[in-house]
Amino acid sequence: MACSALICDSEPWKDLKGHVEDIKKTHLRDLMRDSERCKSMMVEFDGLLLDYSRQCARQDTIQKLFGLAEAAHLKEKIKKMYDGEHINSTEDRSVLHVALRASRDTVICNDGKNIVSDVWKVLDKISEFSERVRSGSWVGVTGKALKDVIAVGIGGSFLGPLFVHTALQTDPEAIACAEGRQLRFLANVDPIDVARSITGLNPETTLVVVVSKTFTTAETMLNARTLREWISAALGSEAVAKHMVAVSTNLTLVEKFGIDPNNAFAFWDWVGGRYSVCSAVGMLPLSLQYGFSVVEKFLKGASSIDQHFYSAPFDKNIPVLLGLLSVWNVSFLGYPARAILPYSQALEKFAPHIQQACMLTTTLSFNMESNGKGVSIDGVPLPFEAGEIDFGEPGTNGQHSFYQLIHQGRVIPCDFIGVVKSQQSALFMFLLDCFTGEVVSNHDELMSNFFAQPDALAYGKSPEQLLTEKVPQHLISHKTFSGNRPSLNLLLPCLNAYNIGQLLAIYEHRIAVEGFIWGINSFDQWGVELGKSLASQVRKQLNKSRTKGEPVEGFNYSTTTMLKKYLEAKSSIPCDPTTLLPKA
Ligand SMILES: O=P(O)(O)OC[C@H]1O[C@](O)(CO)[C@@H](O)[C@@H]1O
């Protein structure tokens, strides 16, 4: 395909378009009867099982999708990514988050230079620093060990590390390593978030890690200054050197902020913010909390998927299959959203992370920032829908809220993520068959839903079935489930650091596959910049009005009215910097 050609003009795309009507005539009830088909739609790799037999697709659909992959030069694009070509063309950068988890002996080059040794220099520094802090050889200004960490950062400098931290928090090995320690995150510039992050913490025993790729993000920098004030007010300004460290690509600004450059942990412009969990962005706070040996396992899990993604044939390649199926669901079947449904509470922050990587809600994800685009990589407007709205909630909580929508409302393809061996066992596990009368353990109860829900979505319930069940006539339409709702299952052996790394990398690469097929740049984010620049105009106005009493001007009627109303009241409550609590 020529450079500015769109994938929708290719023959395989047109062929798939024509195939849609064919597929619409099928029903998952019938497709699921074909065991050979189902068998061909299962892939196992490194302890993982992907079952995509409940996709509205036949084997020939999958073959057609492979044809589309070829037309989009998917293999070549993956190779270009690993080869360090500047595939993020609008920012003229390579996209090399795979280098962040490569083993020491791997060679991955950016602009002709092997970057794996740079990666390991920083990882070794993280390992050494976190060990000093954890062992108490690095102490705060009053000589006390630093047992609590607040990681200040937003977007990609927050959501990924939060996901991994939340997932590790209940893993027995990680629990043992984190004994007596706390890791908190401060992302939102909302004073409520600030108060939550420091409540109950003593500056004497707290280390603040400021995480910002650019070191210019307004929310992060204000929060960092606020915590610097909190530390200085309690311990004196010289305490900053012992109580604040930074992670950034902009070491000049780190130094200007007042953080000792020796206490700065670098990463590089070839790491996109939302793909930065495996850089110091995630590795420093997580290593401080759990120790380097745990985070190293996480990196190894991600690396295992990196190698699989690079070398496995497409019919056995989990991220490739997931990406192609997403394209099928979004661009051909017309389903704009995807539900990410982990059947493990430990993964409660997974969907929020994927949203940014993919888009953004209260917990928006990385897919939405990556693939929420309307033009091709060459700047040509897309005449088809790309990107999807990701949302999710761990089962069975989701079942008691939005599952009604996915069963009988809109068709939303679902990713069911399950775990064979839970991180935890509840009491009933041991008492089964004894005197409790419980039928299954908590985990089996949870997983019963993981196995049942996809079939409920696929098969539904017809009016005929309901009649045989003697459902009253007036309720038949209310109780009818159309079924034929696509889903897939990803089953992980357990949820240790290694598996968490695998899961992260699978979803990162799935996003890349989608973007490569759609022909968009998944690695820039110009869309979020507009909101940032408009906020800066408002910030200037608030400052002028509050400090000089200047009138609100230059905004539309709506914004002017709201700003005036807002400025009428004194919205900031004076606070004591040592506690950051409102002054009585
Ligand atoms: O790490 P930084 O530079 O503070 O940026 C934070 C986040 O802001 C964004 O640029 C936009 O949300 C993200 O891509 C990034 O992760």
UniProtKB/TrEMBL annotation:
Q: Name one GO molecular function term.
A: monosaccharide binding
In which domain of life is the source organism classified? Eukaryota
Identify the pathway.
Carbohydrate degradation; glycolysis; D-glyceraldehyde 3-phosphate and glycerone phosphate from D-glucose: step 2/4
EC number(s) per entry: 5.3.1.9
Q: Which GO terms describe its cellular component?
A: cytosol
Which GO biological process annotations does it have? gluconeogenesis; glucose 6-phosphate metabolic process; glycolytic process
Q: Which SUPFAM superfamilies match?
A: SIS domain
Compartments where located: Cytoplasm
Pfam families listed in its UniProt record: PGI
UniProt KW keywords: Cytoplasm, Gluconeogenesis, Glycolysis, Isomerase
Q: Which reaction does it catalyse?
A: alpha-D-glucose 6-phosphate = beta-D-fructose 6-phosphate
In the record, the note on similarity to other proteins reads: Belongs to the GPI family.
Oligomer status and interactors: Homodimer.
What the entry lists under PANTHER family is as follows: GLUCOSE-6-PHOSPHATE ISOMERASE (PTHR11469)
What is the protein name for this chain? Glucose-6-phosphate isomerase
* Species annotation: Macleaya cordata
